[in-house]
């Protein structure tokens, strides 16, 4: 049947308080989603609802239950990297707009009483919080030494030096508006963030700031972030933010394309970094120069999986640059129309960082984020070979950051491995047969999420 099979949405967080990002490591300080940001996210959720869920929506996903959420049809996850929960809270707000309270969210009790959910039928939807210590997928750029080298090389490049020279008079002029924040081009993200946040939230500051300053700082931050989070090659380490996120997109598409899988909508709330890099990897960067800039709060990038009358599956990409912009179709890889799913998967596969061990190798990371274990596994003669990786998915024994992170757990690993082999074999028997690309760190499948054996494996 022709129509929309399912959608993956990559959503950007909303307005937040100032934060500090180290210009070399991109480690982040604390910040907080503001009521304005919460509103932007609820608006984004409502918008997505009107686009994909509501009855009469132009692009309704036919299989989805729109009013009372069926958690098997919706999969939601959020980067929970060290920003104080801005991204996670953003997706909580987004979901309130996507599946608003509904009086039908109720249950009848044995004694004849009917109970409606709190706040007029609020719906509590599971969200996977993706911790950088457990998964590299949504936060591929931190603790990645080769990425830090790439960043440093960019700062030392002729292009950067020329830009710094050109920007010097401006960076000097804005000193009185920075209250001690170092006014270098390397530090422009922190400069811009401070200016923007105060411009939005502080009346005195907004009145004082000369009109063109924010736009000038924005042009510089766009240059800076594009240089840091892209690379000349889509397989370069500069693109690590997008490349690490690709398996989650590939796996989602794969699940959406299987008719027997109930999954119909995937929402991943992310930082702006994977956006910049994904635009570069998918050739959008080259076709649409306006995408060079940072996306606005509450942006959404959507991959729509569609079938035509001939039963071919293809992909349409849409982007909405914040609350006030249109949701518009973008063409990937210089194409003029939708792209065949197979071509898309093939191209993404070339750029993807498939799993933790590849990430450790490409980043040159040997100890943090689970890489210790990767190394020990790669050592010849290591007797402990695990039968699965993250989320219990693979047969080829690559390392997992999720359960074991230190050598002290090896003994436990050995015993656990035997146990796992048995349960894993048992689980395999009851899983449905699906075509799949091998070797990716995976999303949990609906069967796993709802399968007691799987829950048992986790604990
Ligand atoms: C029915 O059970 C609920 C939950 O135990 C209780 O709150 C409610 O008061 C009961 N209603 C009646 C009429 O007994
Ligand atoms: C607003 O900005 C002014 C400087 O322009 C500063 O003195 C003041 O402390 C700021 N207010 C708040 C609440 O941050
Ligand atoms: C990606 O960005 C780099 C700059 O870092 C640029 O040289 C390259 O052409 C971009 N790739 C595409 C496909 O636009
Ligand atoms: C989003 O819009 C802003 C202007 O509001 C622009 O500067 C920026 O380049 C745009 N970013 C993207 C990714 O489209």
From TrEMBL:
Parts of the chain that traverse the membrane: 410-430
Top-rank taxon, per record: Eukaryota
InterPro entries: His_PPase_superfam, Histidine_acid_phosphatase
SUPFAM superfamilies attached to this UniProt entry: Phosphoglycerate mutase-like
Signal peptide start and end residues: 1-19
Keywords: Membrane, Signal, Transmembrane, Transmembrane helix
RNA-binding is among the record's keywords: no
Molecular-function GO terms, alphabetical: phosphatase activity
UniProt protein name: Phosphoglycerate mutase-like protein
């Amino acid at each position: 049947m022709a129509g929309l099979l399912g959608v993956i949405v990559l959503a950007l967080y909303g307005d937040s308080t100032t934060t500090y990002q180290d210009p070399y490591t991109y480690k982040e300080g604390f910040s907080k989603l503001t009521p304005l940001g919460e509103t932007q996210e609820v608006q984004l959720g409502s918008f997505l609802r009107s686009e994909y869920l509501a009855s009469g929506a132009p692009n309704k996903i036919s299989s989805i239950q729109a009013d009372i959420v069926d958690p098997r049809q919706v999969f939601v996850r959020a980067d929970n990297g060290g920003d104080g929960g801005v991204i996670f809270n953003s997706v909580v707000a987004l979901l309130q707009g996507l599946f608003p309270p509904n009086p039908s969210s109720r249950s009848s009790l044995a004694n004849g009483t009917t109970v409606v959910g709190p706040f007029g039928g609020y719906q509590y939807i599971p969200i996977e919080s993706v911790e950088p210590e457990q998964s590299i997928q949504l936060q591929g750029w931190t603790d990645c030494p080769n990425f830090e080298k790439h960043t440093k090389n960019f700062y030392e490049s002729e292009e950067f030096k020329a830009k710094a020279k050109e920007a010097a008079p401006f960076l000097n002029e804005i000193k009185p508006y920075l209250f001690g924040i170092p006014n270098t081009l390397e530090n422009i993200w922190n400069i811009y963030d401070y200016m923007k946040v105060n411009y939005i939230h502080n009346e005195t500051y907004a009145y004082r700031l000369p009109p063109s300053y924010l736009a000038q700082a924005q042009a510089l931050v766009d240059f800076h972030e594009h240089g840091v989070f892209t690379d000349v090659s889509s397989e370069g380490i500069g693109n690590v933010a997008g490349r690490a996120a690709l398996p989650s997109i590939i796996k989602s598409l794969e699940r959406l394309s299987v008719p027997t899988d109930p999954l119909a909508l995937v929402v991943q709330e992310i930082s702006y970094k994977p956006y910049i890099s994904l635009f570069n990897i998918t050739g959008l960067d080259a076709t649409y120069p306006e995408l060079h800039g940072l996306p606005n709060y509450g942006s959404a990038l959507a991959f729509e999986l569609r079938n035509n009358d001939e039963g071919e599956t293809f992909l349409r990409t849409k982007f909405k640059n914040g609350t006030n912009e249109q949701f518009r179709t973008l063409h990937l890889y210089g194409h003029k129309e939708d792209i065949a799913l197979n071509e898309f998967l093939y191209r993404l596969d070339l750029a993807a960082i498939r799993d933790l061990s590849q990430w450790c190798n490409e980043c040159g990371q040997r100890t943090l984020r689970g890489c210790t274990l990767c190394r020990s596994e790669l050592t010849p003669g290591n007797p402990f070979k695990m039968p699965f990786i993250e989320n219990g998915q693979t047969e080829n024994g690559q390392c997992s950051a999720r359960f074991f992170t230190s050598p002290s757990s090896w003994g436990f690993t050995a015993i656990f491995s035997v146990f796992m082999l048995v349960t894993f074999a048992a689980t395999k028997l009851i899983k449905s047969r699906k075509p799949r690309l091998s070797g990716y760190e995976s999303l949990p499948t609906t069967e796993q999420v709802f399968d007691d054996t799987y829950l048992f494996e986790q604990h």
